[in-house]
Amino acid sequence: MDNNNDEELSLKLFIVLSRAFQSIKKRVEEDIRSYGLNPTEFAVLELVYHKGDQPIQRIGDKVLIASSSITYVVDKLEKKQLIKRRPCPSDRRITYATITSKGENFMNEVFPKHKTAIDEICAGLDSKERDFMIHQLKKLGYFAQKL
Q1: Total count of domains within the chain
Q2: What average pLDDT does the segment 86-99 reach?
Q3: In the beta sheet, which residues pair with residue 112?
Q4: Per UniProt, which keywords does this protein have (predicted)?
Q5: Distances in whole angstroms, Cα of residue 145 to Cα of each of 133, 140, 142
Q6: Which residues span the domain enclosing 121?
Q7: Structural contact between residues 82 and 99, judged by C-beta atoms closer than 8 angstroms
Q8: How far is 29 from 113, CA to CA, in rounded Å?
Q9: CA dist 35 to 65, 66, 69, Å?
Q10: pLDDT digits (tens, 9 = 90+) for 28-61
Q11: What is the CATH number of the domain that holds 127?
Q12: Which residues pair with 83 in a beta bridge?
């Protein structure tokens, strides 16, 4: 009986977690779109803004998007003059995505607003509850990775 109850709880946890994630993701994407970017463009721009120049070939791993989409996303951001490509001086096979001054100014204005929007989305939990959820979800995620 306990095993059956655990299975039911696990299923309910999965459903609740999935629905919560979808609701949060929808609100975050609405915020991002209000700045004239799609979520993938924002993720790439935010990575380069916070972490500095990034090899284009490795961006997909860091922002969890398919490497086949990276060139397209970088092209779009380049057309918007938010990032530019810079060849690696020591290895012709590597090209870096570099934030432009226009991109830097854009993120200086937009990122604090985005951070506030995420805080408002998460306001259903107080600070202690957020910290607890972070630890619990990490624990669950690491366990699932090991399976």
Answers
A1: 1
A2: 92
A3: none
A4: DNA-binding, Transcription, Transcription regulation
A5: 18, 9, 5
A6: 2-146
A7: yes
A8: 13
A9: 20, 23, 21
A10: 999 999 999 999 999 999 999 999 999 998 898 8
A11: 1.10.10.10
A12: 99
Token pair for residue 22?
């979808």
Over the chain, what HEC string results?
CHHHHHHHHHHHHHHHHHHHHHHHHHHHHHHHHCCCCCHHHHHHHHHHHHHCCEEHHHHHHHHCCCHHHHHHHHHHHHHCCCEEEEECCCCCCCEEEEECHHHHHHHHHHHHHHHHHHHHHCCCCCHHHHHHHHHHHHHHHHHHHHC
The residue among 56, 103, 57, 101 whose CA lies nearest residue 77 is: 103
Amino acid at site 55: P
Q: If you search the block for the tokens 């990490």, which residue do you land on?
A: 138
71-80: pLDDT as tens digits: 899 999 999 9
List C-alpha distances in Å: 137 to 3, 132, 134: 22, 9, 5
Confidence grade of residue 65 (pLDDT, cut at 50, 70, 90): confident
Beta strand pairing call for 54-55 and 95-99: antiparallel
Q: What percent of the chain clears pLDDT 90, i.e. is strictly above it?
A: 82
Tell me which amino acid residue 98 is: T
